[in-house]
Structure formats: structure tokens, C-alpha cells
Write a structure and sequence with these properties.
Elements lengths: L1 H8 L18 E2 L4 E3 L13 E5 L5 H5 L2 H4 L10 H4 L4 H4 L21 H17 L14
Antiparallel strand pairs: 1-2, 2-3
Helix pairs in contact: 1-6
The structure holds iron/sulfur cluster (SF4).
Length: 144
């Protein structure tokens, strides 16, 4: 996670789906061939990871275009207004999906760890600055 904060702060694509705005390209293949969304979505609500697809009848491209996963292709536009205007959004990405779900507005909420994410990202960026980091990609403004 720390390496990804460094990478994303430097304008490099990260490697984990918990940070950044790049669309994730991961699905889970169950042992019976069922294609599902990532396992962690199961903590959100019953059936959250269920797509109704399987490897015998659908392609992975079809899975990534599934309505339940499509919102993850829209980057910043799919986030809560608070996140869209946050100066750390390119690094934070609005938080991990299970951490920002609500029954009222789905995934359009700031992460429940918003304050912690802000602290961690700013701490890492502050440390990088002390070592001569070029902060072209980082903002110094405060989140809303
Ligand atoms: S730090 Fe908070 S407001 Fe900013 S993008 Fe992350 S969750 Fe959203």
C-alpha cells in the first residue's frame, strides 16, 4: 500500500485495487466456473458479488461490462462529490469499495477511513518531499 501511494503520487499507475482511479480488471472464478465480482464485495450486502455469469457461456470482457462492475470504469465521475473535489483523489481513489458502500447511495460515499487515508497519504508525501521528491502530481490543498 505504501509503495502504491508513492507510485500514484508520482503519476505512476498503482498495483492494488484499493487505491487510485484506474479501473480494476479483477473478477473471481469459483470452482464451478461461476464468474463473480471480487470476494470482498460479499461484505457489502447479500449477492453483491453475484453476476450471473460463468466461464462456459460468457467471456471475461462481458464480465467487465456487467452493470454491477461498469461503475468502476468511470473513475472520478463515479465517486461522491466530496471525493471528486478532493485534492488527494488521484491517489486515494475514494477508498476501497466495501469501505464506502451505503444502502442509500451505493458506492458514492467517501471511505469510512477518509480521515485515515488523508493522514497516511499526506504523511507519505511529506516524507517523500523531505527526500527531494518532485511533487508535480501532488496537491497541497486540504480535502473538503
Ligand atoms: S481522502 Fe477522503 S475525500 Fe479524499 S478521495 Fe479519499 S475518501 Fe474521498
Amino acid at each position: 500500500m505504501l509503495e502504491d501511494i508513492v507510485a500514484l503520487s508520482s503519476g505512476v499507475r498503482g498495483s492494488v485495487e484499493t487505491l487510485g482511479l484506474a479501473p480494476p480488471t479483477s473478477v473471481v472464478i469459483e470452482s464451478d466456473g461461476t464468474i463473480e465480482g471480487v470476494d470482498t464485495l460479499r461484505s457489502v450486502e447479500e449477492g453483491a458479488s453475484w453476476l450471473g455469469l460463468d466461464v462456459f457461456n460468457q467471456s471475461f470482457d462481458e464480465a467487465l461490462r456487467h452493470p454491477k462492475l461498469m461503475h468502476r470504469q468511470y473513475g472520478k465521475a463515479a465517486l461522491a462529490e466530496q471525493c471528486q473535489s478532493c485534492p488527494l483523489v488521484d491517489v486515494c481513489g475514494g477508498g476501497y469499495l466495501p469501505h464506502r458502500f451505503s444502502t442509500g447511495s451505493g458506492y458514492r460515499n467517501p471511505s469510512v477511513y477518509c480521515a485515515d487515508l488523508e493522514y497516511l497519504i499526506r504523511h507519505v508525501q511529506g516524507s517523500l518531499r523531505q527526500h527531494g521528491w518532485d511533487d508535480t502530481y501532488a496537491s497541497t490543498a486540504s480535502p473538503p
